[in-house]
Amino acid sequence: MAASHCGPDCPAVGYPLGDGVAGFGTDGIRGAVGSQVTPALALQVGYWCGVVLPQAGPVLIGMDSRSSGPMLVAALTAGLTAAGREVWQLGICPTPAVPGAIRRCGAAGGLMVSASHNPPADNGIKVFGASGAKLSPQQQQVIEAGLAGTAGAPAFHGHGTASARADLLHDYRNSLLESVEGRRLDGCGVVLDLCHGSATACGEAVFRDLGADVTVLHGQPDGQRINVDCGSTHLAALRQAVLERGAAMGFAFDGDADRMLAVDGRGRSVDGDQVLYLWGSALQEAGLLPQARIVATVMSNLGFERAWQARGGLLERTAVGDQHVHRAMQEFGAGLGGEQSGHILSARHGMSGDGLLTALQVATLLHAQGCSLADWLDGSFRPYPQTLVNVRVVERQRRQQWQQCEPLRRAVEQAELEMEGQGRVLVRASGTEPLLRVMVEAADAAVVQHWASQLAAAAEQHLNAA
Question: Catalytic amino acids?
Fold first, then answer.
């Protein structure tokens, strides 16, 4: 579902769909506040969510720390109450706290106001159904039709109610502690980069409750600094702190804390593929991973896939996006899945990507084994060299239909031919930003750099031509 700024020709009942904001197909609505994500749009989204979600039970709303969050929560609440709904506002919380609370409270659904890893000037809206999962395509289509003005004029359904329910976050915190099944972190040195975002709600507290010796970076909610040179997209500060303090490991979260990346005691980065391999290995050895099956995306490293297969495991690949991973996990009955970016889903823990839960699992599993993250990484798989280049392509149709650009398509075919099965190329349009992502992976780093440069240049030249 895309949305554009409402100009003078916009119909009163909705908003035209156009370029600029990611649709539900990736991860809800997301874009620049004021031009793409506006209070007027949030009002409409709230109303149509109130129409689409089951009528029994409250609708929950959480947010990250962005300065625009309270404004958008107020607008969503107004729309939901205009649809006659009861609204419970959770305040600042990790995204996974929302689906967890939906399931525990028997709520009709929930919304999360966040732009995840995007800069502070952006914001977005994620919507969850009564099961805690993202909305079905049919529900999304109804909301899109409402925003486009093709679903009829909104009707006033009566006066809904709104109340603050930050108390529900106590249950989320307790669920994190229960997830480690009695394992502790006594005396373990851990650095947490809370990104000035959602992880500040309880990240430090849960690690201290388990006995960890905690150092916190960027630990106060700050809507002007969320994701700015910190968190999972900027690991330099975490790496420096881990090395200076001699910590066993460090964890960095994104703005809404649904993903996590780690740093070992030697300052090396640990991505989602390594986390899947570590956690998956522990579950496999405990007999808790059905068919030793893991679901990953097309971005996951070929070295990870081959190492997991060598352990006797199965690796299923999906398109990028946690909803695709979630769907495949349900289809195959898989116990674990996720993305290289650090978004990990566990069937034993509600199938919601949760950076804090993932960090606790990694830390306590290693501590219980008396193994450091650095030692474990030494014995893990060797990733193939992989490079991802983002090419800015503003025109959405050219991004989405890049395969129709014959020179770029021929360049990709040539790269794959010359790598002779020892590497792969993945080109895809971002679902959240005006970017074409070009990924090249091969056993030879020089080959990777050569083709990444060549293909990015071809994309820049041909897709941005006048």
Answer: 116
